[in-house]
Amino acid sequence: MAQAIIGTLPMAHGVDPTGSFTITVPLQLPESRLKPVMSLAYHSAAIGVSALGIGWALKGISIIERVPATMIQDKFRGSVSYNIQDRFALDGRRLIKIAETENKTEYRFEIEDYSKVYAFGPESCDPTHWEHHLPDGTIQVLGKTQNSNIKGLGITATRVWAICELTDPWTNYLTFTYHNEDTTTGAFYPDKITYGGNHNLNLSHQREVTFIYENRPDPVTKYFGGQKIQTTKRMTGIISKVQKQVVHQYKLAFDNSPLTNLSRIKEITLANKDGDCVSPLKFQWYNGNPNVFEGIRKVANISPEGAEVQLIPQDVNANGTSDLVIMSKKYDPALGTDGLYLDVFFANYKGELSNTPAEGSGFTGLLYSNMVLPLDTDGNGKTDLLHISSLGTYYKLTVLLSTPKGYQKQKTTDFFPTGMDGKFRSGDFQVLK
Question: What start-end ranges are recorded for coiled-coil regions in this protein (predicted)?
């Protein structure tokens, strides 16, 4: 019968320089001349979802992954595309290429720590594997085995190179294996770490750490460089063994956030081989307001005039609230045909709309067109309108400027495009230096 063991799990917690709350739970593993240094770590600002749930990560397993080029480091801004434009990072630290030969490329960290990192293979943009040579003589090998070389889902290029072996200067070594799902979900999970072996002495491993998973009720999908990655498992246990005999086991219990339904760790327990447990670490989560949105309520009584009514929410007067512009087609006596009619209803800070149109509502002096774009033409924070009318081989463009007295028609410009089948888009496309 399992019994309670006096004590609890060691844990460090604090607040980092960004103001985020952090927790580190070091994993106690069987001793050896060379053993893994691992922990369960929480960061309150982390938005990624791992096999440990929201905010948590397993520390101690190094990976190299692709990262986008940046203007300050590479003189251009890129994206992960699985080609020569990609850059690389080891455990989040940017690698800088310094030399290249036919089958070997040498890198250094952006911030020098006197390590040497080598990529192997004929294609520098898609190495077969990597080696990380640390200043103390330790060597990490990454991505050299099939299960540690994680391809992008549906492509042949490698997405992640995970550590598969670590060797110290005395040839003591660790071996890492993974559940590699790069042909199904695109994800990978640590499977086992074996250690205690020595290459020179031809000594095999006697110790191991095994990671246990279950199918999660909240599978999470993300995309990296256009490739799908679906996290379908969550870690429920970490078992330590010596000579195949269980020494102790970490057990992880989860619940789900009522708002996001994402898994989150509720409890971490350490038990010996007989099931006797120390006092568990328990986590009480603040759930926040269960109501994401307020209930439906009427904000105004509006009866728009005219036909072909369109509603355009926008900040007409630059006071920070979204007003409502109602655009419709209505006969304009001044034009002798259907004109563009605008009704503007201002919003207040209580989320209410005025029941009566604002000053300046009415005819615009322009023919009706269903091509009207909201945009800020003069940069004053007020949303203006661009009226677009098609005349066979060219367009007439007229800005309706937002003023305290309503939308005021500005000078019309003729626009002659190379073709008449394009689409208009508004935005700030100019970078001011």
Answer: none
Q: What pLDDT, in 10s, does the model give residues 179-238?
A: 999 999 999 999 999 999 999 999 999 999 999 999 999 999 999 988 999 999 999 999
Determine contact, residues 22/43, Cβ cutoff 8 Å: yes
pLDDT of residue 421: 78
Instruction: Provide the CA 85 distance to its chain's centre, in angstroms.
Output: 20
Burial grade of 286 (CB within 10 A; 0-12, 13-18, 19 or more): exposed
Phi and psi at residue 256, in whole multiples of 5°? -125, 140
329, two tokens: 């087609």
Q: Are strands 277-279 and 4-8 parallel, antiparallel or unpaired?
A: parallel
Dist. CA 416–CA 93, nearest whole Å: 50
DSSP state of 155: S
Dihedral sign, CA of 132, 134, 137, 140?
negative
Tokens of 295: 């209930």
Extents of the domains making up the chain: 4-282, 307-415
**DSSP character at residue 74:** H
Kindly report the backbone phi and psi dihedral angles of residue 200, in degrees, each rounded to the nearest multiple of 5, phi listed first.
-65, -35
